[in-house]
Specification:
The protein is of the alpha/beta class. The protein folds into four domains: 108 residues, Beta-Lactamase, CATH 3.30.450.20; 84 residues, Helix Hairpins, CATH 1.10.287; 161 residues, Histidine kinase-like ATPase, C-terminal domain (Heat Shock Protein 90); 136 residues, 3-Layer(aba) Sandwich (Rossmann fold). Strands 7-9-11-13-12-10 form a six-stranded mixed sheet. The radius of gyration is 37 Å and the shape is elongated. The structure holds adenosine-5'-diphosphate and magnesium ion. The site of magnesium ion (MG) has 4 residues, from helix 9. The site of magnesium ion has 4 residues, from helix 9. InterPro entries: CheY-like_superfamily, HATPase_C_sf, HATPase_dom, His_kinase_dom, HisK_dim/P_dom, HisK_dim/P_sf, PAC, PAS. GO terms for molecular function: phosphorelay sensor kinase activity. This is histidine kinase. Its EC number is 2.7.13.3. It catalyses: ATP + protein L-histidine = ADP + protein N-phospho-L-histidine.
């Protein structure tokens, strides 16, 4: 073997160098290609000159189609200005590098949150050749942060609500008692004043009317605090609003037109009517004040809607609010509207933008909504107007489609028709709805005993059960019951009444009444009893 010449040695060395170089190049390429971060390079014009495959993973644009195109085209349009601003110190050579968060477009039309890290690339003479750096997709992190922030905000809101609620409730309660004494004594004193002392009487009246205003404030505070006694009933929201139309109209400014579209036969809600009234009045008062002395329209709308979990999350809602059907009232106005800043604070107690405002109306609404397991949503545009929607859980309502879909398999009572007799239309409608919910195929209704007897005479063979109200005009429940028994001694009757069960039992002793339903009844109570009646053997009675 001959020893390699110097020339051969040099060539060998060269090859080894090239090999090592390509090995190192391969290693770097593999490293860059496998990074989750985008590694980029642009030229001085801002055109992409290098992108690793992560680019496609992050933005959905292929590396090929993106090469030699302008990087700024990929920045989310809303963020382009901001992006250039952040790059400025770099371009002006005031900083070595820049790091900021902006959005990049995704090919699917959305965007990704990107943390940009970039520095300038310079040639030997120090002239700018372009930029190089990384883009890190932090969308998930950003979302998690936002969610945590939302949660924190909600928690804070809740704590604020709780502590302020206790305070407001406590004050309101004590003041209420004091005010009651002031008002009472003032009224008594006024009465005892000799007729001619007009001046004194005026003073007394001023005391009374101021006390009334103060009592009203107490009421709002109590509502906000979620304290105070509630009297729950089944309430038809449309009927309730019709009932306070007069009061609303007198409080309205001259140029304001009130437009109503109230849905008939709404499902009931379980609510304290005076509190629901307070909600509507507060909304309408604000709407009226938002229109002020100009002319405008206030529209009040009621309806029933399905609220999904997502929808509820977009609302301010009570912790107990569950996905399902809600009855809502919506109050829109063409008034001054609110900017985003104001919108954020509307429900804060004592927040007001009005000179003589108290800032308790909306907080009271919030308190009431929470106590009724409801939700509420606000929408507003500055200068255009506002819309507030308050939702209450619908009682026993599964939606029209579902009533039909579910009533068939549920109908285990054969052709059991139920006759509902009540002079109150809302009670009849509500009972009919509860029965439909139970799977009863057909419900007949009668508004008094006479009509009930006629229907029963005609359809006794089909009617499996009669739900009978005790107090009715023309022919009361007791007489109706007697008439029905003359037609069919085995008639199955459930009596419902606001009177206590005991007093009714005394009156109907030995008359084979199937059952008794204390008014107001919960759907559960009525459904349990009806189910019992329809499945029980003839003559068997729990009473
Ligand atoms: N319909 C509305 N249009 C415009 N702003 C409203 C409306 N409803 C409420 N606001 C804003 O919310 C604030 C708080 O309302 P509220 O709690 O009723 O207190 P007040 O009416 O005493 O100011 C108002 O001062 C107003 O800025
Ligand atoms: Mg108000």
């Amino acid at each position: 073997m001959t020893r390699p010449t110097d020339e051969e040695k040099s060539i060998q060395h060269h090859y080894r160098l090239i090999e090592a170089l390509s090995e190192s190049e391969r290693r770097y390429r593999e490293l860059v290609n496998n990074l989750k971060e985008v590694v980029f390079q642009t030229d001085a014009q801002g055109l992409w000159t290098f992108l690793n495959p992560a680019w496609f993973e992050v933005t959905g644009f292929s590396v090929e189609e993106s090469m030699n195109t302008l990087f700024l085209d990929y920045v989310y349009p809303d963020d382009r200005e901001l992006n250039m601003e952040r790059f400025k110190p770099l371009i002006e050579r005031k900083k070595e590098y820049c790091r900021h968060v902006i959005r990049y477009r995704h090919k699917n039309g959305g965007f990704r949150w990107i943390e940009v890290f970039a520095r300038l690339t310079l040639d030997h003479a120090g002239a700018v050749q372009g930029t190089t750096g990384t883009l890190t997709d932090i969308t998930e992190r950003k979302q998690a942060e936002e969610e945590a922030e939302q949660l924190q905000l909600k928690l804070l809101q809740k704590q604020k609500l709780e502590s302020l609620g206790v305070l407001a409730g406590g004050i309101a309660h004590d003041f209420n008692n004091l005010l009651a004494a002031i008002m009472g004594h003032a009224a008594m004193a006024e009465r005892k004043l000799p007729g001619q002392s007009m001046a004194l009487q005026k003073h007394m009246q001023a005391i009374v009317s101021s006390s009334e205003k103060a009592a009203d404030l107490c009421r709002q505070m109590l509502a906000y605090s979620g304290q105070g006694h509630l009297v729950m009933q089944t309430v038809d929201l449309s009927t309730l609003i019709e009932g306070i139309l007069n009061i609303m109209e007198v409080t309205m400014n001259k140029g304001v037109i009130l437009k109503l579209s109230l849905t008939e036969q709404l499902p009931g809600i379980e609510a304290d009517p005076s509190q629901v009234q307070q909600v509507v009045m507060n909304l309408v008062t604000n709407a009226n004040e938002a229109i002020d002395k100009r002319s405008g329209v206030i529209a009040i709308r009621t309806g029933v809607t399905f609220a999904s979990k997502d929808y509820l999350n977009q609302c301010l809602h009570s912790d107990e609010a569950r996905e399902g059907y809600f009855v809502f009232v919506e109050v829109s106005d063409t008034g001054c509207g609110m900017d985003a800043q104001t919108m954020k604070k509307v429900f804060d107690p004592f927040f007001t933008t009005k000179f003589t405002g108290r800032g308790l109306g909306m907080s009271a609404i919030l308190g009431i909504v929470r106590r009724h397991h409801g939700a509420l949503k606000a929408y507003s545009e500055k200068g255009q107007g506002s819309t507030f929607r308050v939702l209450f859980p619908a009682m026993n309502y599964v939606g029209n489609d579902q009533v039909h879909a579910e009533s068939r398999p549920l109908s285990r009572y054969g052709a059991g028709v139920v006759l509902v007799v009540d002079d109150e239309e809302i009670i009849r409608d509500m009972a009919a709805m509860m029965l439909a919910d139970l799977g009863i195929d057909e419900v007949l209704t009668a508004s008094d005993g006479k009509e009930a007897t006629e229907i029963y005479r005609r359809d006794a063979h089909r009617i499996a059960l009669v739900l009978l109200d005790l107090t009715m005009p023309r022919m009361d429940g007791e007489e109706t019951f007697r008439q029905l028994r003359m037609i069919n001694p085995d008639v199955k009757v459930i009596l419902s009444s606001g009177y206590s069960e005991q007093s009714v039992q005394d009156r109907f002793a030995g008359k084979r009444l199937f059952g008794f339903l204390q008014k107001p009844y919960t759907p559960e109570a009525m459904q349990a009893l009806v189910e019992q009646a329809l499945t029980a053997d003839k003559g068997e009675s729990p009473l």
